């Protein structure tokens, strides 16, 4: 005999009440299984039963856990069965065919069981909204691509969505069309907060909103699209019909607590663009995005690289989409991920095979990925190659010394002591690329108070990687070339070498004056510049550099998003060269090769998550 677990919808319409039958042993086993669910179960008042949030994740976990095996049998009540069926239809029905007559919201199923949860119920964003205005004020003559329309229909039907399409597929347009579909279904979408990595990307969003949804600006009431920035920005929040575009940095300030102005706005729609920016669940900007989205009826997380370190990177997006179901990263990792101890803690190896079907069921209808190879057949192929360079003898000994002993004896006699693994890797990357100067200062240790040496390394010429770049440019006279580095100092050194060789050169760097980056991109795209030098942080996201047919990587970032999305600044809609050539300049027998191996490990987890083996197979052109 096994335990029976009965569940029914509570009167509040946002919780499930759970009752377990069986002997003491069976009850203990069922209770232990319930504690392993990702959501929190609370005792009822009066005691004797439990409640958990009424979410699709909860229903999936209950059904997969108590499946008639040794732990127990799941027995949903009639109203919970109705709710589950309605939600299943919502997630599996063709949204394009149900657009004119939308399925009822799952929260509209009336509950009947009356119990008081021990804690206050989580506020639900599923509330009745007035129908959107049907007055047509503009005709949009633009034609989206079929896959963009399909993605928009999915967003319109579900509201909470993760858009994982390949970089360069036009995810911004898909999201805007999805919001239009959402509104056509009678769901309110304003006020709206769009969070972007930089103001340049914000300009792109504002332009696309004006192009693809002009009626939002023209309707009575005047929807306003504003850049939420500046010292007086909080005064902009009075318009309930507003579209507020802001950066992660500003969001971090104005949603630092639940009382912050962006959190108090209670936005109906929140869009997190380049959403891998919130992958660190403990970062201030990750917490801020979740606060801003806490009450949103519509949330769209947009990223072509949801995994930049490991599969658990997706957790903050799940928590932003569905806070009641995902209150803890630890629970998510324990239930769905393979892990191992690596000396620094628990390391995620990917999805656990036995738990993967349940995880996929939970995300049913809530995420989509299309690959460029499947939907943009007109794009030219990528052609990869590697140029290996040798470090000059004097600097070779410095590099080898650091790699072997975590201490580098520089040719001029200075020593660089590496105080951490991260510092070591940074120094190795520097010494693999260029000569450098070292400044040594004394400072007090913040913990012990003892004096210690601080080493600041500044790159300088000669740079053997910059020399290799000049050879590549000489082989391609008249062609447009984009150059990527990790180090800003190396970017400047490479740019100066290009300028001295007579190349018209522009820059995309962090810390540039406002508008300088956009001016450089516009000039490059217009043919006024032949070379543009970009750091991975500033140049890998949210921009288009299709004037170039060649990308040269003097360094690859350890971060998967920056390492691979940089390629897609060229390989995207608008590229008209016969091929996109990707050239990696690698210092022989250095950390450069280690970077490539780590990227392949991360790429394997991304491929597993989005179910596209091509990512792992084709990463870096498959070249070892």
Give the key terms:
624 residues; alpha/beta; Rossmann fold; 4 domains; six-stranded mixed β-sheet; 23 helices
Task: Please specify the SSE layout and strand pairing.
Layout: E1 3-9, E2 15-21, H1 24-35, E3 42-45, E4 50-53, H2 56-65, E5 72-76, H3 78-92, E6 116-117, H4 146-158, E7 160-163, H5 171-184, E8 192-196, H6 199-212, H7 214-218, E9 225-227, E10 243-247, H8 248-254, H9 261-264, E11 269-273, H10 284-292, E12 298-302, H11 315-321, H12 329-336, E13 337-341, E14 346-351, H13 356-362, E15 367-368, H14 372-375, E16 382-389, H15 393-405, E17 407-409, E18 415-417, H16 421-431, E19 435-444, E20 451-460, H17 464-474, E21 481-485, H18 488-500, E22 505-508, H19 516-525, E23 531-535, H20 536-539, E24 550-553, H21 560-565, E25 580-587, H22 591-610, H23 614-618
Parallel strand pairs: 1-5, 7-12, 7-15, 8-10, 8-11, 9-10, 11-12, 16-25, 21-23, 21-24, 22-23, 24-25
Antiparallel strand pairs: 1-2, 2-4, 3-4, 3-6, 13-14, 17-18, 19-20
Helix pairs in contact: 4-5, 5-6, 8-10, 10-11, 15-16, 17-18
- Report the CATH topology name of the largest domain: Rossmann fold
Percent range of helical residues: 25-40%
The order of strands across the largest sheet is 9-10-8-11-12-7-15
Question: How many domains would you count in the coordinates?
Answer: 4
Question: What is the β-strand count?
Answer: 25
Overall, the morphology is: globular
Distance between the termini: 56 Å
Q: Mind summarizing the main beta sheet?
A: 7 strands, parallel
- What integer value in Å does the Rg equal? 27 Å
State the low-pLDDT regions, or none. 106-140
């Amino acid at each position: 005999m096994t335990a029976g677990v009965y569940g029914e919808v509570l009167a509040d319409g946002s919780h499930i009440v759970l009752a377990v039958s069986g002997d003491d042993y069976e009850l203990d086993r069922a209770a232990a299984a319930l504690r392993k669910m990702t959501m929190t179960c609370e005792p009822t008042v009066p005691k004797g039963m439990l409640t958990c949030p009424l979410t699709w994740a909860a229903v999936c976990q209950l059904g997969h856990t108590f499946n008639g095996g040794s732990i127990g049998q799941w027995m949903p009540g009639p109203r919970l069965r109705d709710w589950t069926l309605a939600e299943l239809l919502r997630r599996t029905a063709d949204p394009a065919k149900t657009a004119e007559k939308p399925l009822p919201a799952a929260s509209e199923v009336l509950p009947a069981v009356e119990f008081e949860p021990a804690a206050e119920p989580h506020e639900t964003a599923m509330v009745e909204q007035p129908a959107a205005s049907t007055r047509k004020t503009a005709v949009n003559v633009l034609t989206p691509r079929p896959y963009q329309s399909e993605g928009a229909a999915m967003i319109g039907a579900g509201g909470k969505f993760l858009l994982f399409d390949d970089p360069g597929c036009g995810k911004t347009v898909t999201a805007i069309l999805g919001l239009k579909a959402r509104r056509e279904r009678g769901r309110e979408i304003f006020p709206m907060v769009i969070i972007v990595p930089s103001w340049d990307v914000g300009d792109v969003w504002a332009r696309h909103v004006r192009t693809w949804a002009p009626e939002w600006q023209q309707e009575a009431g005047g929807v306003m699209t504003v850049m939420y920035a500046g010292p007086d920005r909080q005064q902009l929040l009075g318009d309930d019909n507003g579209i507020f575009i802001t950066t992660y940095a500003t969001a971090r300030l104005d949603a630092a607590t639940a009382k912050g102005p962006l959190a108090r706005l209670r936005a109906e729609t929140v869009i997190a663009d380049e959403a891998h920016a919130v992958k660190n669940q403990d970062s201030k900007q990750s917490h801020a995005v979740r606060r801003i989205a806490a009450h949103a009826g519509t949330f769209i997380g947009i990223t072509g690289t949801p995994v930049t370190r490991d599969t658990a990177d997706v957790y903050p997006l799940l928590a932003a989409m569905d806070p009641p179901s995902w209150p803890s990263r630890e629970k998510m990792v324990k239930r769905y991920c393979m892990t191992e101890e690596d000396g620094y803690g628990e390391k995620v190896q990917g999805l656990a095979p036995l738990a993967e079907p349940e995880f996929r069921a939970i995300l049913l209808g809530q995420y989509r990925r299309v690959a460029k190879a499947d939907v943009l057949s007109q794009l030219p192929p990528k052609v990869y190659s590697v140029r290996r360079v040798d470090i000059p003898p004097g600097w070779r000994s410095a590099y080898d010394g650091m790699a072997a002993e975590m201490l580098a004896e520089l040719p001029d006699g200075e020593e660089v002591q590496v105080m951490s693994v991260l510092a070591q890797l940074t120094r190795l990357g520097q010494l693999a690329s260029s000569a450098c100067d070292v400044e040594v200062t004394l400072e007090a240790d913040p913990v012990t108070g003892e004096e210690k040496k601080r080493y600041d390394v500044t790159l300088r010429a000669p740079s053997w990687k910059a020399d290799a770049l000049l050879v590549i440019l000489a082989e391609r006279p008249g062609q447009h070339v984009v150059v990527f580095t990790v180090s800003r100092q190396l970017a400047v050194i490479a740019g100066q070498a290009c300028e001295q060789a007579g190349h018209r050169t522009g820059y995309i760097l962090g810390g540039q004056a406002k508008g300088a980056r956009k001016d450089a991109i516009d000039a490059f795209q217009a043919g006024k510049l032949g070379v543009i030098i970009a750091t991975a942080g500033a140049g890998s996201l949210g921009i288009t550099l299709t004037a170039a047919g060649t990308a040269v990587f003097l360094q690859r970032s350890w971060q998967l998003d920056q390492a691979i999305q940089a390629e897609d600044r060229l390989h995207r809609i608008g590229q008209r060269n016969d091929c996109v050539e990707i050239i990696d300049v690698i210092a022989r027998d250095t950390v450069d090769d280690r970077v490539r191996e780590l990227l392949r490990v991360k790429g394997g987890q991304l491929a597993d998550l989005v179910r596209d083996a091509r990512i792992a197979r084709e990463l870096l052109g498959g070249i070892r």
